């Protein structure tokens, strides 16, 4: 039986991937410092070490008996990364370096990593292909690109087998026996949970209605967290020694902010309170992933639509 180390497995996407791994018969070890994750989000059945990827000793212990790693552990708030770039460099790049060194020392060379659309920066050409020149516009995106570059070197020099999955926007939730695995970010910066939490006193802000898009609001690419987790398991199967692949994950289509609000109103059965305000500095009008490479290399495509993402997110929020 195969054992996988999941760093960041107490977080939103990591916890969901742990649950899917366990369902599919893998053994799982989780390493998470719970800086933004939650110990009670680690699904039962996983071996859990609470500690940091910056700590070589705990990484070594967590790697024992594993033959592959899925690496989610990172700080991921763009605004915070602008205020505290050194914290982001230390945690995301420095922590990954410790992890990779310990893997190398233990003879473990198979790894799937969370990368991000933030590595691309702005793009006039949509959908964005993996061959698009990476040009991050914030420290968070820079750290994700730096980790991808470390992996390219490790594959070339140490025969690692690596896949970086570049997610665009992730949404939805997963029901397991003990309840829902869902987004528990603080602060929450993602659109769908914030739409669902909007009230008459604190309405959702729609930033700009005069963009050059079909309904004037920004378009983003969302993928259901369970579809995303499934892509990680497929990536484990697709790893090849000496090769580092970068693969986008998204819907390949995209939804406008107004579509998200309208679909959410339908799901919850009342009109989501929303106000239209000016554009926000730095927002691109459209961000959509090309997912042709995910289709051809992983045999993956999303199976759950926007309504399913919102419905699962809503059920998870109202169940707590
Ligand atoms: N959620 C999205 O839409 C999205 C989009 C693109 C990329 N990503 C990437 O996906 C990954 C998971 O994101 P998420 O939304 O689940 O975030 P999350 O904050 O819920 O999960 C990240 C986990 O990593 C842990 N962690 C952070 N630093 C650590 C360290 N030094 N040692 C051990 N654990 C540490 C946190 O405690 C947390 O449990 C991140 O790498 C993020 O950059 C997320």
Present the secondary structure layout.
Layout: E1 3-7, H1 12-23, E2 27-32, E3 47-50, H2 56-63, E4 68-71, H3 78-83, H4 85-106, E5 110-116, H5 139-158, E6 161-167, E7 169-171, E8 174-176, E9 179-181, H6 191-197, E10 204-207, E11 219-220, E12 222-224, H7 225-238, E13 244-249, E14 255-256, H8 257-268, E15 274-277, E16 286-287, H9 292-298, H10 306-319
Parallel strand pairs: 1-2, 1-4, 2-3, 4-5, 5-6, 6-13, 7-12, 10-15, 11-16
Antiparallel strand pairs: 8-9, 11-14
The chain binds nicotinamide-adenine-dinucleotide (NAD).
Percentage of β-strand residues: 15-25%
Radius of gyration: 19 Å
Bound molecules: nicotinamide-adenine-dinucleotide
> Which descriptor suits the 3D outline?
globular
Largest sheet: 7 strands, parallel
The name of the CATH architecture of the largest domain is 3-Layer(aba) Sandwich
Q: Give me the strand/helix succession.
A: EHEEHEHHEHEEEEHEEEHEEHEEHH
Strand order in the sheet with the most strands? 3-2-1-4-5-6-13
Number of helices: 10
Low-confidence stretches: none
Helix content: 25-40%
CATH class identity of the largest domain = Alpha Beta
Mean pLDDT: 96
Total domain count: 2
How many strands appear in the DSSP assignment?
Answer: 16
What structural class results from the helix and strand content?
alpha/beta
| CATH 4th-level superfamily of the largest domain | NAD(P)-binding Rossmann-like Domain
